[in-house]
From TrEMBL, chain B:
The keyword Lipid metabolism does not apply. The lineage of its organism: Bacteria, Bacillati, Actinomycetota, Actinomycetes, Pseudonocardiales. Signal peptide: none annotated. GO terms for biological process: L-amino acid transport. This is ABC transporter ATP-binding protein.
Amino acid sequence: MRVPFVLATALTQGDAVPQGPGFLDRALQALVDGIQFGAIIAITAVGLSLIFGTTHLINFAHGELVTIGAVMAFFLNVGAGGPGWHLIPSAIVAIVIGALLGGLIERGLWRPLRNRGTGLINLFIITIGLSLLLRHVVLVFFGTRPQSYREYDIQQALDLGPVGITPRDLIIVVLSVLVLLGVAFMLQRTRIGTAIRALSSNPDLAEASGIDVDRVVLVVWMLGGGLAALGGVFFGLTEIITWDMGFRLLLLMFAGIILGGLGSAYGAMVGSFVIGIVAQMSSLWFPVDLQNAWALLALIVVLLIRPQGILGQRERVG
Amino acid sequence: MSEQDEQALLVAERVFAGYVPGVDVLCGCGLLLGPRELVGVIGPNGAGKSTLVKAIFGLLRIRSGMVTFKGKDVTNLPAHTLVSRGIGYVPQRQNVFPTLTVEENLRMGTYLRPKEFSRRVATVEELFPVLAQRRAQKANSMSGGERQMLGMGRALMMEPEVLLLDEPSAGLSPRFQDQVFERVKEINASGVAILMVEQNARRCLQICHRGYVLDQGGNAYTGTGTELLHDDKVIELYLGTLARAR
Ligand SMILES: Nc1ncnc2c1ncn2[C@@H]1O[C@H](COP(=O)(O)OP(=O)(O)OP(=O)(O)O)[C@@H](O)[C@H]1O
Ligand SMILES: [Mg+2]
């Protein structure tokens, strides 16, 4: 009940805007943090969106792909009995493992179920079960204690005028944006990318055009698994590695996808940035614990104004 | 019949298929398409015309029966493998990729042979000049008639030997319908065998070499286009008595 009151006073009294060292500086800092958080959500959400677009499967277990990526890299980096590699090769191997895991789940589980004509609701329930299973497998091996990678853990922030960002976080943002641009280029310009869009657009016609739908879906799953693992490493780097980190991110991924427009990969990217920025900016006024709630509130407000999402297309009638 | 059977490009025999377990929509129907032939399939709504084409093309599992293409058994092969063997298909509804541009739609037509795109696109755009003007436009912004052209153009990109058309004239204005039938005749004259499902039975039978009348999942009548056009039963049941007056 305190929250609306703060908002009300902030609105009525012009100079009662939150105190402390320069509100504008803090807002800019929150914006930078939000862009960084949004980039991580976007990298993981793009795969989730492509999987939904091509198969209409709502993959509730996508968060676990994120966690497994982060935990794999942790094991290779500092895990007991692990090889103790530097984080960069560890992350690359974790991404490969994430891609293979995605491919394995598609090949061993979803494809056989699809071919049997299992309904989408049933498949959705199965993803919930899979999520639970994978999360607890991670729990058994990783434990409940939060961990960090050995390298790049504590860094001095670069001072960029009003805002500060550590070199680590700056590189994460730059790499994320490059990866997202790479995905966009692939979707827009390559043969397999166009086939992915064609499949999302009209599955039967894709098959009728000679596209091997199962193969394209496999590629999408491997891409989604690899991106999730990369997002997991980034998330673990900027915050901390825990057994349920991906699950905590899942709701924000869904929010980003829906906000951007269901079924549009570019929408998922844009929506994720909006969600990340709203979550971080909300902590300027409200308790950090409520970050996600404000992000979801933003989702609801946008959907009330634009039901198809930011980049979603209204169905053409007739 | 047996001699014709041997030369036939595409044969479907005693096909049983359906969507719901235990319910057959197709109950033993079949057809035959010879090289360079233009064959029409007509019948009332819900007769199973679209279902038959989908079953032949591997989009719906055949429960019993056989489909052969150029003498080889292709029953229940996935559709994308039939495309590489030389069969093209344009569905009744949703015949384009709405969120892709016209050019990308055509590109997906040569998905299996990307190198042939530039050679084929010239031929297809010659047949459908409207596609050349609209290359960069999204397919979902096109009219029904233009979409039909794009759907056919996409299917022709692979230079198929057989083209399966499901109601190419459905929902089009008379002027566009005329255009579509003209194009179908043209494509057929260039050597492509065509199996065409049509709602516009009279127009279809006028241009077809042979026709099949489908009813409740089985073959009701077959004959040449003119035979069917003047068959009293067919007129009574499927063409309407108005047709007789003409
Ligand atoms: N996807 C589907 N799932 C379940 N039943 C279907 C499906 N498509 C068609 N049917 C049923 O199969 C039967 C035959 O349908 P089909 O579309 O083949 O008819 P049609 O002869 O093409 O009719 P129309 O002239 O209206 O296009 C109908 O009873 C229809 O209800
Ligand atoms: Mg039909």
